[in-house]
Specification:
- Helix content is 46%, strand content 11%.
- The strands form five sheets. The chain has a six-stranded mixed β-sheet with strand order 13-12-16-17-18-19.
- The longest helix has 29 residues, at 307-335.
- It is globular.
- It starts with 9 loop residues before the first helix and ends with a helix.
- Helix 3 (28-40) packs across helix 14, helix 6 (98-108) packs across helix 8 (118-124) and helix 6 packs across helix 19.
- The protein is of the alpha/beta class and 851 residues long.
Length: 851
Amino acid sequence: MINSDRNIDDNTVHQFNDAVVDAPLVSPARVTASADNASRMIAPLWPLESFVAVNPFLGISHLPFAEAGDTVARIWQSRHVMPRQFYLEQMRQQVFGVGHVVMALDELGGVYRQQFDAEKILALSLIEPVESPAAATIVDIVSDAGKLDWRRVVSDRLSQWAASYFDEGQASWSSPWKMLPAFSAWRSESMLDRSVEMLGLGGFREEVAALPDDADALLQLVAGELGLSEPALDLYFYRLLATVAGWAGHARYRGWLDELAGQQHGMVKQILAVRCAWELILLRKVCASRQQVVDRLASNLTTPLHPDARQSYRVDIVLHTAFEIARRDGLLNKLRPSLTRAQSPSATTRASAQAVFCIDVRSERYRRALEQADNSIETLGFAGFFGFAIEVADIDQQRGAAQCPVLLTPKYLVRETVREGTPEQIDEAVRERSLARRMSAVWHRFSALAISSFAFVETLGLTYAWRLLADGFGWRMKASAASLAPSAKAMPVGPRTAGIALDERIELGAGALAGMSLVDDFARLVLLVGHGSTSTNNPYQTRYNCGACGGHTGEANAQIAAEVLNDSSVRIGLEKRGIRIPWDTFFVAALHDTATDDVTLLNIDQRPPSHVQDVRDLQAALQQATRTTRRERAPLFTNNAAKDVDRAIVRRSTDWSEVRPEWGLAGCMAFVAAPRARTRKISLEGRGFLHSYDWKKDDGFAVLEMIMTAPLVVATWINLQYYASTVDNDTFGSGEKTLHNVVGGIGVLEGIAGDLRVGLPVQSLHDGDKATHEALRLHAVLEAPEAAISAILMKHDHVRELVDNGWLKLFAMDAYSGKIRGYNPAAGWVDAQPASLTADDNSAVSTRLSA
């Protein structure tokens, strides 16, 4: 039927099978709708320079988590829970047992409660799972039937073209077709490319030339030639994009930015057209009997899921839910005793300092350590951009990076300047920065050129010896403290004006303080701590930075927030709004390096003379907190036998050969929005996002709405990226870090070819001996009235979808009743009771599994 070892003569190529031509055609409008729907199912992939975590299941979050297994299997040839053996091993180790399975069935309800009981689940769990067949493509069919792996060929060729087309300055020679729409650019290049014909596909260039030059027209042609039904066409287009999910994700990112700006963007559809063109050409050139291939394709796309496969998926979902309930019990049991605890360390004593950290899970360890170092210090949690959605331009640039969550568009442009600098000093800083930028670009290009790379060290001789030694042994010269800082003051920046007007500064300041529930009882020092990460030779460096700052470090947002809140004019405006900041309160900007746990104070030279001792006391507490946090983190690394822990931790961040400079957000599974008293006396082991929130200070629940629609959604995205990368790293992760090659300045390939990789590398999830992240959905615990939470869910579809469909687990704490209740879409709010796990249950499970 299929012959991939010979070419087909031109008469055969252009002789359409009557059955295909006469098949009921999908209307042009419906083909366009199918392409648009498939495009929206692809999660955006941010480039390396501003990488942020994204929910890889974004396109299917409208499906219930418990019923998404078939879609994940058919589209991605993957799974969305761990392999069956993982759960069996967890039961053997008595992590969960019969009691948790019973609770899982009650929680899932519906068909799960009707079809199963705990005994049946345990029995079925020992049977080999039945998997659903993946949705086929023509590339799949010809690869399975022939000797040549066309999957690999198509992936490699498409990736090579996309790397050139999307290149952001890494390539020495840019694509001459970059100004064309993506499909037209691919077609123009492919008409000149002989490499495919050298693989044995004669006439490839002529076939490409015969294709229409418009992406929409190509999609119509493919739909007509295949004659698929509307549901099959939807599935087919989605599967095609999944085979090139990396480059489709990058195209989706570009479209995402345009959509935020209110523009239309069809870049993903362009990638779909390229992928469809390969399908059409292989159908025409490789398949001896095209009708049989089309029939096989249609049959595969329309065959319903086999009942045994559906039952297998549901058994796995029950086991996964039971495992999560066991882990959830540990979290909720830690929180329950705190419901009777006072909300502040002292009702009468003013805190010596208040430190506001990002809600990032890496801050949780440091906050505990800082409070331990000085019990009079209060810590708070807030999104690390501190409510200032800004674009930050360097002193020599007219445009800058967006320092805000990717769900937002920066509203204000701010620019670096010299603190208290004269015009001459500012001009000199511009010249120095511009020269440094040019020299860095020249150095990078010279070291990367093929003609110089092999002789690079010989060319520089001993000049480069120090660099090799420094990189090899982790020695680095620390840069001198820069006098540059972004400013909210008005200043011209080319045709634009940078700065934030006074009334808007007041509005932003009020929103930030309300958002962190800090509207009274201010300390003399309020520390605003942004965060970033220092590492070397690490394409994923921005992945360790602040997601709330768009994948950048957070010092610029902290500096702008401190400048605004220290402004006397702003404080006068805030007082009119009922927020009185004492005259002796000084806001300090700081940066937390999560790789080393150093905290650097950034505007300390502007502190009042009266606060000299306050600053010294704070710095002493910070130094102690740094040491404590490092010692808590050290056992998480495999080389933790170093006598000098501080030196060993710092060295990891400057060692170019270190594949695990830090663990990032590995382990994340909880989100708590409540007063600090709920978590101050407990350890969440660096696994919880902590957002300060006091609902009694939240008039109209505007702050709660902000938390649920922004930070909570971003935290869910982060959690699900770690979740998916753990469940199936081949599909949703980025594989082996040591094999990565940066391509186009955009992302990485694993090796020298293949699709652009997405998600997290194995080294971010596993230490070589054991996993450092467990595949657990995010469990959000909010201390707020249930009615207020429910009202916000009803108001915001995208949040309700995550919760109702089970991608996010939601709980409410009530200090008055002392209860924690979980949200169930079918039953409403129900008590979150710990599972009963008896010795007899454990014994019975262990006996059954052993047998």
